[in-house]
Amino acid sequence: MVASWPEPIVSVQALSQAGVSTVPSRYVKPAHQRPLYNSDQSGLNTEIPVLDMSDVWRNPEGLKRVRKACEEWGFFQVVNHGVDHGLMKRVRGAWREFFDLPVKEKRKYANSPDTYEGYGSRIGVVKDAKLDWSDYFFLNYLPSSIRNSSKWPAQPPKLRELIEEYGEEVKKLCERLVETLSESLGLEPNHLMKAFGGVDKVGATLRANFYPKCPQPHLTLGLSSHSDPGGITIVLSDENIAGLQVRRGDCWVTVKSVPNALIVNIGDQVQILSNGIYKSVEHQVIVNSGMDRVSLALFYNPRSDIPIGPVGELLTENRPALYKPTRFDEYRLMIRQRGPSGKNQVDSLLASAHDS
Ligand code: OGA
Ligand code: NI
Q1: Do 131 and 223 meet the contact criterion of CB atoms below 8 Å apart?
Q2: Start and end of every Fe2OG dioxygenase domain (predicted)?
Q3: With a threshold of 0.85, does the pTM exceed it?
Q4: Does ligand 1 lie within 6 Å of residue 234's CB atom?
Q5: Nearest Cα to 225, choosing from 291, 301, 272, 286?
Q6: What is the pLDDT of residues 106-115, one digit of tens each?
């Protein structure tokens, strides 16, 4: 249990609104971590794949495209995903209204590193760590036994209802996607969900991210490089402002959001379950001097109290289990203490890392 933050929490949005002309040193990243704006010079295909799910779900050939996207990118955008476009706009707009409330109002929901639930500005409790240029609100959505909407923002008044409505639709999408991923791995449709611990036992959390405009965007990051710890993530990005970058070899590819699309990415638990066939790819968020950016990430996770290890059917003599089974709650605790750290966390579960 981690009870408190090592330093007082500062709202980055308040700093930004106060009009600071330089980034305080707490947010200045070491040179090797600063953003690179190189996606267009990479010479590689610089767009993450876009999958039309109405097509994928109708046409067995579509599974091959899903597999390729998960093997090569760990990221794709989906269109015709079944989530109502108007609802996507409304929930994002309502979160923007929440972040526009006075700091005093938002502080009523101030979070602690014990559960992370509520309004916050940092991940990890390492003293003197360099921080990210963002604020967020984090809440538990599934299993419904741990959902407590009285901890969700009461303002704007429609937000709680919108979170429920959006959560239900994205949950259904995730259930379908887990089936699709299972089939694309050559498994029975329900195999991966069983390995997740069953549809009634999975977990889901929501993080609303606010990236304030920044006077010196080249010195900092909105969100440091990390891979997502859970199963799969569904990101509803800002309509107008790019910011998410995905690692591709030595380059960072900036995601250009397709209108009304959702971004899907593979998390560490699916990398583990697929024995490394599917990649949980590093990503980060850059900020800019002109505009604030809002995004919503819904993390869909395996049941937290069962060991998660490579699926037996995917093991071969040439490719034995790469990872040691670990419970998701243990894994998450490690990340909550250390903060974002590239791919170091999943690599620490490599069977070889434990042998040495
Ligand atoms: C995250 C994340 C991307 C974004 O919340 O884990 O990667 O665009 N967010 O905000
Ligand atoms: Ni992420």
Answers
A1: no
A2: 201-302
A3: yes
A4: no
A5: 286
A6: 999 999 998 8
